[in-house]
Design a protein that fits this description.
- A hairpin with a 2-residue loop joins strand 9 and strand 10.
- Helix 5 packs parallel to helix 6, helix 8 packs across helix 9 and helix 8 (225-250) crosses helix 13.
- The chain has 15 helices and 17 strands.
- The protein is an alpha/beta fold and 493 residues long.
- The chain is 35% helix and 21% strand.
- The chain has a nine-stranded mixed sheet with strand order 16-15-14-13-7-12-11-8-17, with helices on both faces.
- The chain folds into two domains: 11-148, Rossmann fold (3-Layer(aba) Sandwich), CATH 3.40.50; 181-417 and 438-480, Dihydrodipicolinate Reductase, domain 2.
- Bound molecules: NADP nicotinamide-adenine-dinucleotide phosphate.
- NADP nicotinamide-adenine-dinucleotide phosphate is lined by residues 16-17, 19-22, 50-52, 93-96, 120-123, 125, 148-150.
């Protein structure tokens, strides 16, 4: 079986920050793949824009190197690469001054084709770019704006940013990207829930014991100290990626897959999250910061040693027991956790079903393990349903847990696409289903802000954990206190 690629209409993609890390590692390789699969018509243009003086030829060379570095050798074809590079252009533009805007306007011309402006630049200049695009008359009915996280630092700043970009672009033209939503597994979660009659009747507190969402990294700070130390794990990961995943697990069936139908349901989940404040923050959250330890087999320094001044109470780990206060989820905890320098790089959603009400099997059958649906987003995307079966063979009735592999990747002659590939073209298609609406982003901050304030008010400090472990022991206690365990402990890996 193969997937079919339907070309999108010709477009102009202006990538502000076209020479940056995100463009190099993600955007250029993603656009190359789509072009190589014939989804991008040759008259489309991809225009890099940044302050550096650079010719279009030099930008094409930069893109060629990006493809060599970030596209697998067997997916690089020289004819396709030349075809793709031919679409690339470069303009030197400074978001913070007049420089280069007339050139950009001249290059774009009067065409009424779809025009997307991707802001792969620091968030401090998002508003300025939107304003200059407006002032230069570059925004038409078919223009779109794509913004990356972080969308604000708190509710007030997110509100302010949304207000500013909203002066120039309508909400239906703004694409707030959360690349987790572009992952195959995340879309598969929607397919599993809403394209099958099997799961939805049991997708509630009567049958689900709890949900776990883990986004674990083995990396430390890398070169992001400035940003990360101001942000911390809760702003960097929970406010966006983890809450988006929680919404897709917990939302009611939308009336359709249309953007607003889905986003309306996600918003209701965010609004139903039980508030965490000074009265319960110590019971519902754990903050952690890694100390020296090991990662990927090598000794690594602690967080403080990676900082210039060696002082910080920023959390590099957070675990939260969240609750969705509605009929479907009453009494079902959603255990969320994310951290740097953890034991394994893995992002996954675990739906833990309740045990059978009564076992007919004797002790010789072994332990009955309750069913569990595992949706893995990283490092390899996979979906597996853990079920109990009879151990094959002539012996007695012994039971064993096996995974029904529901990934089916091997059944389709298709490469697993990067999330950006889908999202970048959804922008051109004008499909906002996998993008965050303004009220969603703000509702997420409305839940997160009081947690951060409560940490401050109550003086809840970070607990140290050794790099290369699963975080502070308090995070294990958070779950064990309820008689449960984190997935990897049970799995034993
Ligand atoms: P980066 O490597 O520092 O690149 C920044 C880019 O912006 C460069 O091309 C830079 O080129 C350009 N730029 C800076 N100031 C400019 C100005 N005044 N006018 C025009 N261009 C300007 O940053 P990045 O890692 O790619 O991140 C870009 C954005 O994506 C940030 O908001 C980041 O939070 C977000 N993001 C990044 C990643 C990632 O994996 N890297 C992931 C998620 C989100 P010049 O210096 O030549 O102008």
């Amino acid at each position: 079986m193969t997937s079919q690629f339907i070309p999108v209409e010709p477009f102009d993609y202006v990538v502000f920050g076209g020479t940056g890390d995100l463009a190099e590692r993600k955007l250029i390789p993603a656009l190359y793949h789509r072009a190589a699969d014939g989804q991008v018509l040759p008259s489309s243009r991809i225009i890099g824009a940044a302050r550096a003086e650079m010719s279009t030829e030099a930008f094409r060379e930069f893109a060629r190197q990006a493809i060599v570095a970030h596209v697998k050798p067997d997916e690089r074809r020289s004819d396709k690469i030349e075809f793709f590079l031919g679409m690339l252009h470069y303009v030197s533009v400074d978001a913070a001054s007049e420089r280069g805007w007339a050139e950009l306007k001249a290059l774009l011309g009067e065409d009424d084709r779809v025009r997307a402006f991707y802001l792969a630049v620091g968030p401090t200049i998002f508003a300025e770019i939107a304003a200059r695009l407006g002032a230069c008359g570059l925004i038409g009915a078919d223009s779109r704006l794509v913004v990356e996280k972080p969308i604000g630092h708190d509710l007030a700043s997110a509100h302010e940013l949304n207000l500013t970009i909203g002066r120039y672009f309508g909400e239906n033209q703004i694409f707030r990207i959360d690349h987790y939503l572009g992952k195959e597994t995340v879309q598969n979660l929607m397919a599993l829930r809403f394209a099958n009659a099997l799961y939805e009747p049991i997708w509630n507190s009567a049958h689900i014991d709890h949900v776990q969402i883990t986004v674990a990294e083995t990396l430390g700070l890398e070169a992001r100290a400035g940003y990360y130390d101001r942000s911390g794990a809760i702003r960097d990961m929970v406010q966006n990626h983890i809450l988006q995943l929680l919404c897709l697990v917990a939302m009611e069936p939308p009336a359709s897959i249309a953007a607003d139908a889905v986003r309306d349901e996600k918003l209701k989940v965010l609004r139903a999250l039980k508030p965490i404040d000074a009265s319960n923050v110590a019971d519902m959250t754990v903050r952690g910061q890694y100390g020296a330890g090991a990662a990927d087999g090598a000794a690594v320094p602690g967080y403080l040693e990676e900082l210039a001044d060696g002082k910080s109470d920023t959390e590099t780990f957070v675990a939260i027991k969240a609750e969705v206060e509605n009929w479907r989820w009453a009494g079902v905890p959603f255990y969320l956790r994310t951290g740097k320098r953890l034991a394994q790089r893995v992002s996954e959603i675990i739906i833990q079903f309740k045990p059978v009400p009564h076992s007919i099997f004797g002790p010789e059958a072994g332990r009955l393990i309750a069913n569990r649906l595992v949706l893995r987003l990283q490092p390899d995307e996979a979906v597996g349903q853990m079920i109990m079966i009879k151990d094959p063979g002539p012996g007695g009735m012994r039971l064993r847990q096996v995974a029904l592999d529901m990934s089916f990747a091997d059944s389709f002659a298709v490469r697993a696409p990067d999330a950006y590939e889908r999202l970048l073209l959804d922008v051109i298609r004008g499909n906002q289903t996998l993008f965050m609406r303004r009220d969603e982003v703000e509702a997420a901050w409305r839940w997160i802000d009081p947690i951060i304030s409560a940490w401050r008010e109550t003086g809840l400090k970070c607990r140290k954990y050794t790099a290369g472990t699963w975080g502070p022991s308090a995070a294990i206690a958070l779950v064990e206190r309820d008689g449960r365990t984190w997935h990897e402990e049970e799995a034993g890996d």
